[in-house]
Specification:
mainly alpha, Tetracycline Repressor, domain 2, Arc Repressor Mutant, subunit A, 212 residues
């Protein structure tokens, strides 16, 4: 745990907790709408309706507040990933299972594109955000691979663990590229999120299981 973590003073009284929750939500909204360049304690104060002094009482720096929001958003997204904890392959079989896991994983990333974009751009120059993002991504990868390996006996790849790991790398790289650079960076041909998810799931399923 970093020194900045220990500096965050969690409120105890209900009124203070509510005010702090507004601060975190305001900070998140600013990051989504304006990116890191618009994220200032003054801007958060104005949007949350909480004085600058009160914010500094809880988070003594802009960086501390940013890390608090990052921690909250990471925890929220972790809780959303319930589809990465299946105990068996569904009745649709291996292909349906793989396509569902791939689609839901990439779709969640796209659904959180605005906040992920802000943190990823910040991570390029902030070692703490970068380190936390790496831990979070590797955690998702581990759960993703465990979910895929439920149908490892159907994989055509000779090394199921390597195949599952590579599958996540493909999903992560392509989806994050779309989030940070837009949908028309690599090609001028329009590609909606729906088509992107469908083709991505099909490509990963073909890679793991062979053509349908």
């Amino acid at each position: 745990m970093s020194e900045i973590d220990t500096e965050i003073r969690q409120p105890r009284q209900k009124r203070s907790r509510e005010a702090y929750a507004r601060v975190l939500q305001a900070g998140r909204d600013i990051l989504e709408e304006e990116g890191i360049q618009g994220f200032t304690v003054q801007a958060v104060s104005k949007r949350a309706g909480v004085s600058v002094g009160s914010i500094y009482l809880r988070a003594p720096s802009r960086e501390a507040l940013l890390l608090a929001i990052h921690a909250q958003e990471t925890a929220r997204m972790d809780q959303e990933e319930v589809w990465l904890a299946p105990t068996s392959v569904p009745p649709g079989g291996a292909r349906a299972h793989v396509e569902e896991i791939v689609t839901k994983t990439a779709a969640q990333m796209l659904a959180n594109a605005s906040i992920l974009r802000a943190f990823m751009r910040r991570g390029a120059e902030d070692p703490e955000i970068f380190a936390r993002g790496r831990i979070s991504s590797q955690g998702v990868a581990e759960h993703f691979e465990t979910a895929l390996l439920l149908c490892r006996d159907d994989f055509r790849h000779p090394d199921p663990e390597t195949a599952s790991d590579f599958a996540f790398r493909m999903i992560y790289s392509m989806t994050i590229r779309r989030i940070t650079h837009g949908s028309d960076f690599e090609s001028s041909r329009p590609l909606s999120d729906e088509v992107f998810l469908t083709e991505l799931a099909r490509a990963i399923a073909d890679y793991l299981l062979g053509p349908a």
